[in-house]
Amino acid sequence: MALVGIVEAIAGYSHRLGQLQQLLGEDGMASHAAELQQFFQQTVWIRITAADVGQRQSRWDAIATEMYRDMRLLVVEVNFAKSAHQRDTRQQRLEQLQQRIERLQGFVQLLQSLMADEVTERAL
Fold first, then answer.
1. What is the tens place of the pLDDT at every residue in 49-96?
2. Which residues, at least 6 apart from 63, have a Cβ–Cβ distance to it below 8 Å?
3. How far apart are CA 95 and CA 115, in angstroms?
4. Which residues does 71 contact at the CB level (< 8 Å), separation at least 6?
5. Is 80 exceeded by the pLDDT of residue 12?
6. How far apart are CA 82 and CA 33, in angstroms?
């Protein structure tokens, strides 16, 4: 699998995560989260699980697994936030969503760092 395709998929995912972050609490939040999950599964997950990143493979796989888990939880939490009737409950759910998105962005940064190291290593 070409490293460029992986880098582009991760960057696209990061961009879409940012868009979801902007939509927290808005009407389009749930549909965007569902689209994000679909993009993750069909584009990002396929590429990152097929990647060969040499010595970094075990760390890479662990990050990919956590991202997959967190992405599934994100969609569930979006639906909980959407259905919350109490203002305090809804606010709490939105804060949890914010934390989940930040965690996923952290994983994106880790993957980007690992990819940069791999590209540098292959160039040598």
1. 888 887 888 888 999 999 999 999 999 999 999 999 999 999 999 999
2. 107, 110, 111, 114
3. 30
4. 36, 37, 40, 41, 104
5. yes
6. 11
93 vs 77: CA distance, rounded Å: 7
Give the whole-angstrom CA distance, residue 104 versus residue 120.
Answer: 24
| pLDDT for 121 | 78
CA-CA-CA-CA dihedral for 19, 24, 27, 33, to nearest 10: 60
CA–CA dist 113, 3 (Å, integer): 13
Q: Is the pTM of this model over 0.70?
A: yes
Residue 1 has pLDDT above 70, yes or no: no
74 neighbors 33 (Cβ within 8 angstroms): yes
Residue among 33, 40, 53 nearest 9 (CA): 40
Kindly give, in sequence order, each residue whose CB lies less than 8 Å from that of residue 12, ignoring residues fewer than 6 positions away. 39, 43, 44
The pLDDT of 1-8, averaged and rounded, is: 77
Tokens representing residue 32 in the block: 């965007």
Q: Please state the length of the chain.
A: 124
